[in-house]
Amino acid sequence: MQTIQSTSDSHSRRRNILEQTLHGITEAIEHAVFAEQISANAGFFQSLDARVKVISMLALLIGVSLSRSLLVIAAVYLLLLILAWSSAIPVDFFIKRVWLVLPFFTGLVVIPALFITPGPVLVHLPLGLVITATGVNTVLFLLLRVSTSVSLTLLLILTTPWNTVLSALSVLRLPDVFILVLGMTYRYIYLLLHLANDMFLSRKSRVVGYLSTSDNQHVLAAVSATLLGKSLDMSSEVYLAMVSRGFRGSIITLKPFKMRAKDWWWLSAFLAIAVVVIIMGR
Amino acid sequence: MFTESKRVKLLVIYYGALLLWLGTTAMHIPDGYLSPVTCIIMFLVALPFWIIGIRKMREKLNARSVPLIALLSAFSFVIMMFNFPIPGGTTAHAIGATIAAIILGPEPATIVVSIALLIQALFFGDGGITAYGANCFNMAITVPYIAYAIYWAFSKNQPLTSKRRLVGAFVGGWTGVTVAAFFAGVEFGIQPLLFHSANGTPLYAPYPLSVTIPAMVIPHALIASVAEGILAALVVAYLQRSNIAVLEAAEKPAVLGEAGGFQKLRALWIVLVVLIIASPLGLLAPGTAFGEWGSDELASRGLGYIPAGLQKLSGLWGAPFADYNLPALGNVNLGYIFSAVAGIVIIAVVVWLFSMLLTSDIRSKKSEH
Question: Domain B4-361, what fold?
Fold first, then answer.
């Protein structure tokens, strides 16, 4: 394997498509497991009612998206860092998870905005380019707004088990059927990921050398089509299993939530902060 | 100091690289790119499709639809994780909405892809929560409806194993994702025109339509749309060979994916066309935005070279946009009129395809009786 790798570098990318996909799948599972572990820790945010968290996060998200002030968004980000710290989330992880991924999309995309946004010149660069003050502002707005919004979601997910997040969505008046489907989807994603993983791995373990683009496409399509067939078959089996356990189409969900004084207190605190963010950000 | 042409060259290279890179990523819009007003409008645009999708599921499948939708949403999610190779050496993520639409029909496919997108947004930080409506409109509505209409236009009255179905799946998937990329480009592009601070600083996505539309459409048309199209075609081919029952089931109205029932949808389409056309124009009314851009005395500084670079780029792309290319900063109205017209044309094509489907369906039903 080693020799093949070194002799066919030009093909390494193509050959690695199965590996890339395998890697992506494993990573997704790892992330979810990691989030689950943190959400089981004892911490400030973990101790709050999930509905409080969902509403607070949404209110802050709206505040951040409305804000016309960089300082206000930065303040929210700082608040999130404090909340992460008080919720037993490794702060460096919390920062890195957002800021290491961010440049790949947002960073790359906004760079030209530094130069092309009309405004007072800040810096003259070689090649006749100029960085404008408005350009810098624009870039900061986008970077801060995106990172703060992503951090908000991340904080919620890291401190709340996924099934609790889903049940808490009922507070947004989403129909129970919808929440049931979401929960089942989440569960079956992992099953299908495992199935896909097995198929890729077994295919890869039988491959010596590299596959052409078209071979890879056929492998991926075969895996996709097999997964599709399996999903359809499984859905009827799951349906029969549900019926045999008494499912008649109506859904009764357990609502394991109970608002305590502390939850009410923090809910009003977060809503107040969101209102301040909206007013200050105007 | 560098000459004008060298600057232009550098920018063209930069944009070229950027475009290639963008094309390999899925078009999940994160939070912070779209203004709250746009987000609300996109939720409102998506809402009727969600309602129709749920209604359709209830009618056709009732309780059975719960596990079916859950499993297919999980399937759609997993498909979005695959790195699909494209001739030329890059890879892209397919959406899988085309396959869902072929198997289930567009209305349930909307629900399936929307659920996959919600889980991505909530648990994997892929795509924003405030931008969820926009993402659903682009990927869970535009792609399945367009792909489905085209697939059926190709495979009407064709045997299950027909090669035409593969062509239909490819063209459908390619067109669906390309049009979705166009919509995403419009959503990005109207941001700086409508939402900026008093001194002209764009508060959300910073580029005008003249940048965002080619930046979204070109790379998607070359890369991501191709991935969606090839994957859909190969999956259909695989099903033809090894699991034809799935395709067979998709043909039978009793199971799902009934080709009829578009009559009811027609009124909705008209409402939607009006909504889509009105949404950017409606935004214009209260905004003082473009007056400021035009009168900004400093605007000329930025105008000096970038539009020239863009002009070159859009020259690469095609004639229709050439007229509209430059004015984005100086004359915003043109950009608007252009995007409105382009939107109308695309939607008209979609409506036409649907009405074609509708009439042929009624005809075939009549001949049966």
Answer: Arp2/3 complex 21 kDa subunit ARPC3 (1.10.1760)
